[in-house]
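Teaching assistant's notes for section 4

Start the section by putting this record on the projector. Ask students to predict, before seeing the second block, whether F-box domain-containing protein will look compact or extended. Collect guesses on the board.
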Amino acid sequence: MSPFKFYKLPYLAQYLVVQLMTPAEVFYLTSLSVPIKNMTKRMRWCEQSPRVYFSHCFPFDSDEFYWKVSVGNKKMPVLAYQVISNEVEHPKQEEMKLYYKPSASPEFPFYYMCKSSDVDKFWEKVQKTLEELFQTNKIEVSGSLTEISKSITFADYRLECFRPEAKNLEKFLESLDGKKSPNSIVMRRIYGSLRENSRISKIDYVFLRDDGYCSSDFFGNFCGKNLFMVRLRGGNQAFVRLIKKWLDGERNYLESVIISHGSRFASEEVLKEFHWLPYSEERRAKVFIPSVESNFEIPPETYDHSDGVDIIRESDGLLASIKISGTEFTFFVWKNRFP
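Reveal the predicted structure now:
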């Protein structure tokens, strides 16, 4: 049977055929044809402005690791690529054209090959195609910190680490000096302590989604902007320590702290350490508006502090509000009292 001559079809027929293809098939076509690439800009395979998921996986059929890319809430497969050593021979890639070979995986009909020395250039090309094809600027990256590409430029960049060592996270963040850093970091747990001058202070959001109870040391010494935690053990004294550091001017980056579950928190034990004021609508608004939108699903009612209390930093008059109820703790710094 002779090959199907797709390019001889009328434009409308081409459009309908491409729309029935999977994202993985379309990604492959866009790497071969500029007209097809332009055509796909008007199509949609998932929700508007979807998140791209970039994850480190087990090898297909060798000792070399590979990465896979999926998209949207359903995480539809788009491509997988394998990083091979510089010594391995494979066809030349002129202008970083994507070299691929058939795959045994039903999810990915092809997987792409890239020499270890070309990873950043390769990813730059892939990233541009993904942004254009799916009309998105959002990505979530998960995998070994030592293997993640340093050339990610998506505006909304979320990094997911399983259980990193603090020193390895510090090293990774330092390696991004002058490059795009993650907007947010998701960790299940972190081992060790971050430095006082940690680069994590430049990250908009840190989400600690622990499967046990996090050490209060991490919380009390947190030096970033926004912290969202699921569990914290023995939080009362850690709350006091963190708030005192903010009052002393040691946590000027801090904007918000949210703990959704934990051991029983005692508001009296925390508030007795401070001179606090009851909420007044003349002093601030009821609802806190974060300066940077979170890319986590935080319930809107979390930001309602009409039943919280206020403390004021004497050095500059900056106001913060505290709300403690059972197993929840929230702390917001109001750089704009009436947003």
